[in-house]
Design goal:
Blueprint (H helix, E strand, L loop, with lengths): L10 H25 L5 H8 L4 H18 L12 H12 L3 H11 L16 H4 L2 H12 L3 H20 L24 H8 L7 E4 L5 H5 L3 E3 L3 H26 L11 H31 L18 H13 L3 H6 L11 H12 L2 E15 L2 E12 L2 E14 L14 E4 L10
Parallel strand pairs: 1-2
Antiparallel strand pairs: 3-4, 4-5, 5-6
Helix pairs in contact: 1-3, 1-12, 3-4, 4-5, 5-11, 7-8, 8-11
Length: 433
């Protein structure tokens, strides 16, 4: 990277840096005026909130530092990547805790944290025509069916790039993955991990791998690839490809005019004020979130007595699902299903789908067998059920996997109040045999 332009040298990043430099210059002038007795409270307040220039430079350098630490092991920075996640991963890696950083990255890209990004795949044709497959991969990810979602994601990645480039897929040797002013398509980004993922795999390997080697997985040579690291890297790459495609579209519709003239302080003042506000909010939210996650621990010896189930707990929602089934309240069950889309649903239509799945299955009785917290945002409730299938009595053990979100629709945390729990309707299909 030393011989090439850094991500921090991209026009959009350089503009932000230059604006802050200019703002700090004005700040020094204001201090001098104050010393001379010429004061403006509004300006003083604004500049008192301006981050230290070193802090700004730290933020701007994060993508370069992230790629330096993680590109060789399959993670790259891209436009849609959570900035707090990048910062946390870099801080851990630079303090000698790269393994912990990888765990955080893998957890993030295999959780509901990526749900908000899914709408990005509805915009460009290369992704929208594959949206049904993307939905299935997302569902498989949450249900931890990694053996099925990894090959699916690899084919989506290859096919989408083929459509975007109009000639070659992601794993083709001469595929160009470049775009103007793009983090994802920087030489330390997509091009770098493409070479790693496309490495030849000539021998059958029974050892676990942690990189999505395309040739080894799709050609049946790497047999143990079903883990969160591989899945997470596939998702991260897919989002980066989408960011690259968006940059290409923007470049085509709005060709860059070079050189870019630096903006004056007066022209960039509103932008600076916006960045100041966003930075302060981002820092508070980031520190609070990571502190809570670091302190979170799964519950021990969780009571399976129904009377002990607390409000806003996953087991309380699981109980509501089972009781709604018994009462044939299909509408309530439909409301509690986790969906990839944030579009408002027609509850009547969705209730009809649940009815078709369950109307020939009469629940007689149930007993909660176990409750297990799988993470800060996920739990599994194992239940023994007695039911009639088309009049024939059946007994089965089902697992209801639930995930939680907060009031803003972002990943929630088990144990906090006002959490909304939703379930993945994976147990419906197990009831027919």
């Amino acid at each position: 990277m030393s011989k090439e332009k850094k991500i921090a040298d991209l026009p959009s990043y350089k503009k932000t840096h230059d604006n802050f430099k200019g703002a700090h210059t004005v700040g020094k002038v204001i201090k001098a005026l104050n010393f001379l007795g010429i004061k403006d409270k509004g300006l003083n307040d604004a500049f008192s909130k301006l981050p230290n220039l070193k802090d700004v430079e730290n933020i701007i350098s994060l993508p370069d530092r992230f790629n330096s630490q993680f590109a060789k092991i399959g993670w790259i920075a891209h436009e849609s990547m959570n900035s707090t996640l990048i910062e946390k991963a870099v801080d851990l890696a630079e303090s000698g805790q790269k393994e912990n950083a990888e765990i955080i990255l893998a957890e993030h890209f295999t959780s509901t944290e990526i749900k908000w990004l899914q709408h990005r795949f509805r915009v460009l044709p290369a992704f929208s025509i594959r949206f049904e497959l993307i939905e299935q991969a997302y569902k498989d990810t949450l249900e931890e069916r990694f053996k099925s979602c990894v090959p699916l994601l690899l084919t989506i990645i290859d096919g989408a790039v083929n459509d975007i480039s109009k000639s070659k897929g992601f794993f083709s040797e001469n595929t160009e993955l470049k775009a103007w002013d793009s983090i994802a398509s920087h030489s330390s980004g997509l091009s770098a991990i493409k070479e790693i993922f496309n490495a030849p795999r000539k021998k059958t390997n029974t050892e676990e791998i942690f990189l999505p080697y395309r040739n080894g997985i799709l050609h049946g040579r790497d047999l143990k690839f079903d883990n969160k690291h591989v899945v997470g890297k596939c998702w991260s790459t897919l989002f980066a490809i989408n960011d690259w495609a968006r940059a290409l579209k923007e470049e085509k519709e709005n060709p860059p005019i070079l050189p870019i003239e630096p903006t004056s302080i007066s022209e960039s003042w509103n932008e600076i004020r916006k960045v100041i506000t966003e930075y302060q909010e981002w820092k508070v939210q980031s520190d609070t979130k990571w502190k809570e996650l670091e302190n979170w621990k799964p519950r021990e010896e969780i009571s399976i007595e129904l009377a002990d189930f607390k409000e806003f707990s996953p087991e309380k929602t699981a109980l509501e699902i089972i009781e709604s089934w018994k009462k044939k309240n299909y509408g309530r069950i439909a409301q509690l299903i986790h969906r990839i889309s944030d579009k408002e649903i027609n509850i009547g239509v969705e209730a009809g789908k649940v009815r078709r799945d369950l109307e020939n299955k009469k629940l007689n009785s149930f007993q909660v067998k176990s409750i297990s917290d799988k993470g800060a945002h996920a739990s599994e409730i194992t239940i023994n059920i007695d039911y009639d299938l088309n009049g024939e009595n059946k007994m089965k053990e089902i697992v209801i996997r639930l995930i939680c979100t907060d009031k803003n629709g972002e990943m929630g945390m088990n144990g906090k109040e006002n959490m909304t729990w939703e379930f993945i309707d994976n147990f419906f299909s197990t009831l027919d045999f």
